[in-house]
Design goal:
2 domains; three-stranded antiparallel sheet; hydrolase; metalloaminopeptidase activity; manganese ion binding; metal-binding; X-Pro_dipept-like
Length: 432
Amino acid sequence: MTTKYEQIPSSLFVKNRKKFADSLLPKSIAIFNSNDIYPVSADSTMPFQQHRDIFYLSGVDQEESILVIFPDAYLEENREILFLRETNDHIAVWEGEKLTKENAYEVSGIKTVYWLTDFDKVFKSLMYEAENVYLNKNEHYRNSVETELREDRFIRKVQADFPMHNYKRSNPILQRLRSIKEPEELALIQNACNITEKGIRRLLNFVKPGVWEYEIEAELIHEFVRNRSKGFAYTPIIASGNNANVLHYISNNMQCKDGDVILLDVGAEYANYSSDLTRTIPVSGKYSDRQKEIYNSVLRCKVEAEDRLVAGNNWYRFHKEMGEVYTSELLQLGLIDKADVQNEDPKWPAYKKYMMHGTSHHMGLDTHDYGILTDDFVENMVFTNEPGFYIPAEGFGVRIEDDYVIQSSGKPFNLMANIPITVDEIEDLMNS
């Protein structure tokens, strides 16, 4: 086994490729590349992270891999092909096990596997048979990449070598497909959420005045890794006191003081699938009256959001509706008044002073997962639900977040329903 996680049945990847192949124009070939391994300095590199698209379509979790999908290829063995870095005894000694051709078939369900050295020759013959070429660029709405990717170099080369083909985009197809999860994917995300739950329960027994934010991070990483996770699905935010008002606070280097609350935005990954959780807990094990008031207000907003994370709604409408919920809660809390609302700038409503980020994003293989925001919510999409109020003048902020699966009708299913969330649950566990 080359991975920490238990092997995923290849049937998932067979299904995913079929959905993708069914979305292509006739006589089309599509190519997907693994991510590079990125250098740090000297001979050190960052840990390898597989490109989620090639993983989604093949299950191959290894560098220097290429997947080719060509549904209309004349020879059946050319309709799905994997190209892998050839393994040998030397690589096995220095780097450990790599996929053999047999392993690759077990993982992916793809029968035709070549070593990378054969790529140029095989690819050329396939290109002469194809008319349309689907290439893969990241079109996620939050994408801002300055690094040149292996995929970018490939796109440049293939368009130079074969300028007369008709080039198409894979990413819009994958944005749609990946946003709607298969049952096997929901089980993997649920497992990531269950590992996160173990971490949170461990913390509730650990946190007390004087503990450092990085010590909390260490407790979590211990619990995650011992449950077969690679670690955090994203850089953890462990923000005590006023740090909670910095939305992407990741220093995690302050001491937690009696009387403060800690905003924990943390989630384990499992088998490349993410979880995304936020809880705001009291350092001393007991919330002050004001902290409790704000916490319960945010929790009410989260419950209101559940009623709107339903099939047929969409991301834009959902966020507009949630703006009305926040306005109403902030008026009740006295943080804004009617004049603020009457005089608000429609582009930056009054509630944005205290709640300035989105309430939901798609979640899956990426923490901010693929999904086309103008599409209606449909069954088996997975969304976060993460309202928050941030009050620098009072020295704290509160955010609460769980992950939900859209159902065919009615409320979404909460993948984190077992994780303590109410004031009473959190205080009881911290003081038990």
